[in-house]
Each structure stands twice: as structure tokens, then as C-alpha cells.
């Protein structure tokens, strides 16, 4: 059996076929397989020019995945950590903020489902939701209304 060496372009396309990636992720993952950083930069420029590598698409996909369990602050932190540009993060957060109250309510309902009966329980529920990255306003609205909405 002959072992065939996979080209740099082939590796990049295989990674993009599995899921969206940021430019920074692609650079990190392809670096061990390239001869020079310029070679990777040229490849990434070509992929971006064809629309195969899109930071905006990655951010939207990642935000959608995280929104089920986490709030906008956690999503923002994750995107920035992954190397998404500030402009794309802001655009993504605008769309994410529109759904934050519903996402917060869903996370609260899955974890608790009943309004707190004591101040200690209220604090516990608030800390849980805040730790998930939901805004203070969304947390207040959810705990004020509970499952009534």
C-alpha cells in the first residue's frame, strides 16, 4: 500500500468540509504541514476569495450553536478567543441579543423550571444564568416572570 501525501490545499478543504473555521484556526492547524507561512497565507487568501473561508459564516454558526445554552457575553468571549475580528463579533452579537431573552428563559426552564421561593434560591438561579453569560436585564425579566411568558 502506497501512502500518499495530502496537499496543503487538500487538508484545508477537508477541514472546511467538516465545519466552518476562522482564519486563525486554519493557520494554526495548517502550520505543521507547510513549508512557509507565506504559503499558508496565499492559500487562505484564495479560499477567502472564493467564499470557502468566511469569518462571518463561522461566527454565525458558532453563535447559533452556543445560543442554546449561553448568553451574549459568553458568545462574545468565545468568538474573540477564536480570533474573530471585532467587527464580525459586533454584527453577530446584534443578532444574538435579539434572541437572548428567549434563550435565557429556555436555559432557566431546563435547569430550574420553578420560580425561587427564597432569597438564597433566587441568588443561586441568578448566579447560574449570569455565569452562562446572560445579561442582568434578561436574568431579571426571566426570574420576575418565570414560566408565565
Q: What would CATH call the homologous superfamily of the domain at 7-53?
A: Winged helix-like DNA-binding domain superfamily/Winged helix DNA-binding domain
Give the integer mean of the pLDDT values. Answer: 90
CATH architecture of the domain at 7-53: Orthogonal Bundle
Q: What's the Cα radius of gyration?
A: 21 Å
Low-confidence stretches: none
Q: What is the percentage of strand-forming residues?
A: under 5%
CATH class of the domain at 7-53: Mainly Alpha
**Helical residue percent band:** 55-70%
How many angstroms does the end-to-end distance come to?
Answer: 63 Å
Number of strands: 0
What structural class do you assign from the helix and strand content? mainly alpha
* Series of H and E elements: HHHHHHHH
Q: Give the biggest beta sheet.
A: none
Defining key terms:
single chain, 149 residues, mainly alpha, Arc Repressor Mutant, subunit A, elongated
Question: What does this protein structure show overall?
Answer:
It is built from eight helices and no strands. With about 150 residues, the protein is an all-alpha fold. The longest helix is centred in the middle third of the chain and has 26 residues, at about 85-110.
Mind sketching the topology for me?
Layout: H1 8-18, H2 23-30, H3 37-49, H4 55-67, H5 72-81, H6 86-111, H7 119-131, H8 136-145
Helix pairs in contact: 2-3, 4-5, 4-6, 5-6, 6-8, 7-8
Task: Summarize, please.
This protein is an all-alpha fold.
Amino acid at each position: 500500500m502506497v501512502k500518499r501525501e495530502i496537499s496543503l490545499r487538500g487538508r484545508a478543504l477537508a477541514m472546511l468540509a467538516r465545519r466552518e473555521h476562522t482564519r486563525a484556526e486554519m493557520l494554526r492547524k495548517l502550520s505543521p504541514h507547510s513549508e512557509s507561512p507565506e504559503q499558508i497565507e496565499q492559500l487562505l487568501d484564495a479560499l477567502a476569495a472564493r467564499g470557502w473561508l468566511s469569518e462571518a459564516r463561522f461566527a454565525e454558526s458558532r453563535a447559533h450553536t452556543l445560543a442554546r445554552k449561553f448568553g451574549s457575553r459568553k458568545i462574545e468571549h468565545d468568538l474573540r478567543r477564536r480570533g474573530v475580528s471585532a467587527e464580525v463579533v459586533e454584527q453577530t452579537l446584534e443578532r444574538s441579543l435579539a434572541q437572548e431573552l428567549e434563550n435565557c428563559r429556555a436555559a432557566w426552564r431546563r435547569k430550574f423550571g420553578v420560580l425561587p421561593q427564597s432569597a438564597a434560591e433566587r441568588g443561586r438561579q441568578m448566579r447560574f444564568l449570569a455565569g452562562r453569560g446572560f445579561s442582568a436585564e434578561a436574568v431579571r425579566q426571566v426570574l420576575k416572570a418565570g414560566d408565565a411568558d
